[in-house]
Design brief:
Length: about 350
């Protein structure tokens, strides 16, 4: 039960802790390094919160973090219940993280029972009870954009891409020029890099953007072509293949937080209350609007990147208005007459 001398030191980091746990299972160092690659960067970042808390708890209670018994894990979870307002989703993430370094914990009867109690006491809730009407933003953006204004062009393209597809900001931040395929009907963009939903047996996202001749100012396919033309001079000295570039010199590739800020500023200018709604709310707004306009749940799942059997949309994304592949974009961009 007591902490070993090797563990009585500063927190080594989540990756190091996981690697130690793998090595304790008598795998080789190279195999341990390979096993760590099964975890995405975002998952490791999420688990880091758990491991830091767990490490401190173990040091305070003289417990070896890699040899703890189930009752010690239960005590840790109870400690979090008493000292935080974490909901069920966070506790479930803690269970997943601890299962990596303490095999068998995640499936243990007492741990599962504890998590069920947390679900009853602190159930997961949708981020938003209602959502804004995409028409507000679409009407705001339904104006010509001067090619000379790279800032406005960048903000508009990022926002419309999210509304046209229902995808995550992470997904559009991974668009590569080499993957953009143009035809007489529009643009197809397969996402080849790993995303949140990437796993064996699951298809990678593929964005389908048809030419939207009825509303040329809102045509995402045309806007992509215009954006590529405007940014071409800035790409000559860059080897990076990413679609989005920062609109300020030296025009480096735009990362996810930057694109998120662009979208949030656009929503605010359009009249969306950004003290409540983040840039990520475009996913809620677009998918909910598509459903209200008659798009099937299967089509919504496919366009927005959920698996065919996923219940996430119904549970967390299908929200009423605050006031109330191609088919998805058509319906979302079908403006109300008033």
């Amino acid at each position: 039960r007591s902490a070993t001398p090797a563990l009585e030191r500063a927190y080594p980091g989540g990756g190091s802790l996981i690697r130690q746990a793998f090595l304790m299972k008598h795998v080789s160092e190279k195999a341990a390094d390979t096993l760590i690659q099964s975890l995405s960067t975002s998952t490791l970042k999420q688990y880091e919160v758990t491991f830091k808390s767990w490490w401190k708890y173990c040091q305070d209670h003289n417990v070896n973090p890699l040899h703890a018994q189930v009752e010690e894990v239960i005590s840790f979870l109870q400690y979090l219940m008493e000292t935080t307002n974490y909901g069920y989703g966070t506790f479930n993430a803690h269970r997943s993280a601890l299962s990596l370094i303490l095999p068998g914990v995640g499936s243990n009867f007492l741990v599962k029972r504890f998590l069920k109690a947390v679900f009853n006491l602190r159930p997961s809730k949708p981020r938003y009870e209602n959502v804004w009407d995409p028409n507000i933003v679409l009407k705001f953006l339904d104006v010509p954009t001067p090619p000379s204004d790279l800032k406005k062009l960048s903000y508009k393209l990022a926002t419309l891409l999210l509304l046209a597809t229902g995808q995550r900001i992470q997904t559009i931040s991974l668009i590569r020029l080499s993957n953009i395929k143009t035809t007489s009907k529009g643009v197809t963009i397969p996402i080849t890099e790993r995303v949140k939903t990437s796993r064996p047996g699951c298809n990678q996202p593929c964005l389908h953007l048809k030419l939207f001749t009825e509303k040329p100012n809102l045509c995402v396919a045309t806007l992509i072509m215009k954006y590529l033309e405007v940014t071409r001079p800035f790409r000559e000295s860059s080897m990076d293949d990413k679609l989005f570039l920062c609109h300020q010199k030296p025009h480096r590739p735009a990362k996810r937080p930057t694109i998120s800020r662009w979208v949030k500023e656009t929503l605010k200018e359009a009249g969306v209350d950004t003290s409540i709604f983040s840039a990520y709310s475009t996913r809620h707004a677009a998918t909910s609007d598509a459903y209200r306009k008659g798009v099937s749940i299967d089509t919504i799942r496919s366009s927005a990147g959920w698996s065919p059997e996923s219940s996430v949309f119904a549970r967390f994304y299908n929200r009423p208005l605050t006031e109330s592949p191609d088919e998805f974009t058509n319906r979302v961009f079908q403006l109300d007459p008033n």
